[in-house]
Amino acid sequence: MKGLGRSFNKFLLLWFGEFISAIGSGLTAFGLGVYIYNQTGKASHVALVTLCAFLPSFLFAPIAGVFADRYDRRLLMVLGDSLSAVGLMVILVFMMFGEANTWQVCLGVSISSIFSSLLEPSYKATVTDLLSQEEYTKASGLVQVAGSAKYLISPILAGILLSLSDIKLLIWIDICTFFVTVTATLVVRSGLVSKQHKKDETFKGQFIEGWGAVTENKGVIALVLVSSAITFFLGFIQTLSTPMILAFSNSHVLGIIQTISALGMLVSSIVISMISIKKNYLKILSASLFGAGLFMAGFGLRENTILICISGFLLFAMLPLANTSLDFLMRIHIKNELQGRAWGIIGIISQMGYIFSYALSGVLADYVFTPLLMEKGGLANSVGSLIGTGDGRGTGFLIIISGILLSIVSIVLYCLKSVKKLDTRGDLCTDQ
Predict the structure, then answer these.
(1) Among 299, 317, 366, 379, which is most buried by a count of CB atoms within 10 Å?
(2) What percentage of the chain reaches a pLDDT higher than 70?
(3) What is the per-residue DSSP string for 226-291?
(4) Which segments of 190-217 does DSSP mark as H helices, in order?
(5) For residue range 303-339, what is the model confidence (pLDDT) as tens digits?
């Protein structure tokens, strides 16, 4: 038990480093969004920067997963954190010689994103190295607390700092957080023995082996595909909540709603970290996804700030429960030596939903649903009589549809026999 206690303490140190890093990343993300919009006045430029920050990590995730099993996981985390600062330095250099153009910011965030792709599979696999199965859910809750910091702490802090200085200060702070993360990772690394891959293993062979680890179990691949569906539907509310709210309100109210919604995720994550989930993972997963779908529909139902705040809070409170259950059910059925490459592949499949939703949501809202729910639109006298008509109502209706479909997915998931077989504690594949 003492050994397990020391391992969890090492995890906490690693987690603290990632928590600080998340705050720094959130500062830069918020600051660059404001900077680009103020410079260009175009949302498309902000979207382009966001895409450049997301796409490289997405594309390199499977390769990073193989690296996580082929080389020292903690060392990869150190390199990923350290080298991602290079991209930020590129942006700073451009800013020191004048204003950084959109393409220059895109170049910098792309460089950072490439190296940051090393972090997630190595970090998740290291959690498996450090902890027992009983500690996974508690660790998952803490990891989600760290992830929520960029939505809760960073925007408020960035707003204060921008009133005192400019974007360069935020970037410098982000760079400084890397020192905290790297130090924490090195301390954890010093007490662990790195797992070596077989010398006759090839990079291609390891990638194929990781793909096999994900696809050989029908239940695991079903959960991965469900993860992709979840990100697809969540992508709609991520991209459409802002125009929906701004259609009847202002940016101040928007900020309040986003903060309250993010608090739901924080509260739920803290509860999970304090009270470990020990059974009924599939029931919790299905119920939380069903609830998330209903609350998403409530989010788009009316132009009512109180209703939107309550729905947003409850929606995001459901997500840590779903993520924890998904994480556990997949983790315990993948061999430890394959975890890095498996998580890299899982990451790229599950996040494909975001790419499709980002591409479709704006087009559908602007050119299909909004015209239908204007005062004289095709759905004004039917759907419009229930949810209202106007600029933001088509967007709200699209969010409602996404929520209903997510609830349907949760029901289908619960009925899958292959997934039900995963919800057992016997015949686990994870090596301890």
Answers:
(1) 299
(2) 77
(3) HHHHHHHHHHHHHHHHHHHHHTTS-HHHHHHHHHHHHHHHHHHHHHHHHS---S-HHHHHHHHHHH
(4) 203-215
(5) 999 999 999 999 999 988 888 888 788 777 777 666 6
The C-alpha angle with vertex 158 and arms to 80 and 57, in degrees rounded to 5, equals 25
430: helix, strand or coil? coil
Is the pTM here over 0.85, yes or no?
no
Residue written as tokens 């010398």? Answer: 199
Nearest residue to 142 (alpha-carbon basis) of 240, 271, 255, 231 = 271
Nearest residue to 428 via CA among 282, 284, 345, 330: 330
What CA–CA distance (Å, rounded) separates 83 from 105? 16
Distances (CA, A) of 270 to 85, 275, 306: 30, 9, 24
The continuous run of DSSP H or E covering 83 comes out as helix 73-96
Percent of the chain whose predicted confidence (pLDDT) is above 90: 12
Written as six digits, the tokens of 103 are: 């393409």
Mutual angle of helices 393-415 and 281-301, in 10-degree steps: 170
Closest CA to 288 of 195, 406, 388, 402: 406
Structure confidence by residue, pLDDT tens digits, 83-116? 888 888 999 898 888 888 888 888 988 888 888 7
User: Hey, what's the torsion of the CAs at 77, 79, 83, 84, to 10 degrees?
Assistant: -10
Which DSSP string corresponds to 141-165?
A: HHHHHHHHHHHHHHHHHHHHHHHHS
Measured in residues, the chain has a length of 432
Owner of token pair 């026999």: 417
Give Cα 367 distance to the centre of its chain.
28
